[in-house]
């Protein structure tokens, strides 16, 4: 019995120190990707409306949304020139997108109603508070839009937002591979599907994880405007996986041993770099998303939007920075294909989009180079972005982050063994006396 208890103590000692030091790092890593904003009031860009065009809106909640789920469909729809495209929310204050980017919605729900009521297409990105009372303004509004005849397009776990409104009951749908089991238990009236990038079930089109939303959005453009418009939009954003013949099948992703990399980065990435992302006028929406989402989904790098005031993106969205300088940051990234002056005194500066290719390619390559290949591969898996033809160069694995818990466990065991030896010495001393 004494041997068993001693073994239990040694195991607990091996676990305690890594857990105690790793837990704060986990909360810090998750906070880097947690949407937040100071709520500062900003004016959106002036809204133009052409009554001859269908209206497409991307809805965001008061607690924000996933950045790529929001910005990639917006840019695709805006690129076609065939829609009135707006971002909408229940209120006018800036809403936080994951990774540290704040968006000023174009319209409130009430303002959209004043322009003519129901939209023709409503895009629903993943929201951090899905299923909570805070999403009630969104789900109530979605129900009204669906009753008004709008086509719903859910992106990634935006399907759960639509499901929480009861609008997926009896429908086929899909979502991010990491959460499908959860959604099956939470929303059993939905026929959840795996192994496809999107599902078209008539009144609702749903997509799998994050960048699968590009395929689903292009499909909706094909359905509403035509195949040529979808092909043109795919070329405009340099999306290499466009399939005009329908939903491209894909191997259903599952957690693998190599995915442990995210646990090591999250719990033991104590020297996690912080990157400033400079906001500039005219930047592409997908270019912005590629930086904030790639680094953010890795959980190995933190990002924050910097600049000297609100900016207008390529297709007219308004973003506000969270910092006006690069103080306390390790380096600066300037998204976009247009040259801009960097924040004074901030070095080094990188311009990831100054060569041809899909915007996420260069950022994933930078992630591999500055962290490691395993982290970049995990991030691409979470993004649901095929990288078979993308060259990733860098260290193979985050060895420092991996060895830290082992070293801490060893220290814990040595401390426990030292305590055992001290107790034994005291016991022997008492016997001699």
Automatic annotation (TrEMBL):
Residues 1-22 form the signal peptide. Keywords: Membrane, Signal, Transmembrane, Transmembrane helix. InterPro entries: Class_I_gatase-like, DJ-1/PfpI, INH-QAR. Residues 57-215 form the DJ-1/PfpI domain. The keyword Signal applies. The chain crosses the membrane at residues 406-423. The keyword Transcription does not apply. PANTHER family: ARAC-FAMILY TRANSCRIPTIONAL REGULATOR, HTH-TYPE TRANSCRIPTIONAL REGULATOR RV1931C. This is DJ-1/PfpI family protein.
